[in-house]
Amino acid sequence: MESLIAYWTGQYERAAQLAQVGRQHREGGSIGARLASLEARALAIVGDSAGALVALSDAERSREAISGRDEVLGVFDFPAAKQFAYAGTALLAVGGQEHVQQAIVSAETAIRLYRSADGDDQSVGDLFAAHLDLASGHLLLGDLDGTEEMLGFVLQSSPERMSASIVRRLTVLGRELGGPQYGGAAQAVHLRDRLQHTVVRASLPAAHPSELPT
Fold first, then answer.
1. Cα 171 to Cα 164: distance, rounded to the nearest angstrom
2. Which of 115, 141, 156, 163 is buried most, with the most CB atoms less than 10 Å from its CB?
3. CA dihedral in degrees (196, 126, 41, 112; nearest 10)?
């Protein structure tokens, strides 16, 4: 929890350090995969690509070592779907065409697993995040059609369901669509306008995000 708080307040190095400390005291269940995934995501943001990739590998090994389900479920559980969602975010931050393509596969896997899960195991916030990672991945590969397709799930959803972290990510993606590399292409301008409209709607006082960032 302390690592998460540090991450969402922009203290990425501290978030990674807290996850590293937690890994020294982990017990059974999915907590090892969670802590390694938290570390990977934070390290990727601060530019430690090598450390992030090592942590992602550690998360995979921790997942493989799990026998049975966690004793305490709910917010204490770290399902495979969430692990793939974290991996997608980390790999996007690492960058490079190969890692971006891996991020797309991870985000697609997260979405598939969440959609096939029981209602209590589904996370709207993680579904939004995974779709935004897919959109970002396609954008980094210069695929505006793929970007628009992946944004559809988010843009067609009620803004009341969007957390502050999702709104921030929509804002960042909108700025990226306005970059000079797209030369004011009509499709990019249209997508940016739709993103800005959604951000405004989600920021209204009537909007009450239903989930905290994870």
1. 11
2. 163
3. -120
Tokens found for residue 199: 């951000």
Burial of 78 (0-12, 13-18, 19+ CB in 10 A): buried
Tokens of 2: 């302390």
Contact criterion met (CB below 8 Å) for 87 and 113: no
Model confidence, pTM: 0.88
Average pLDDT on 13-19 reads: 97
CB 101 within 8 A of CB 121: no
Picking from 116, 133, 115, the residue whose alpha carbon sits closest to that of residue 124 is 115
pLDDT of residue 192: 94
Which residues lie closer than 8 Å to 196 by C-beta, 6 or more apart? 174
- Are 64 and 196 in contact, with CB atoms under 8 Å apart? no
Q: Where are the alpha helices (DSSP H) in 10-143?
A: 12-23, 31-45, 49-64, 80-94, 97-116, 124-140
What is the per-residue DSSP string for 105-135?
Answer: HHHHHHHHHHHHS-GGG--HHHHHHHHHHHH
CA distance 181 to 152: 22
Return d(Cα 89, Cα 172) in angstroms, integer: 14
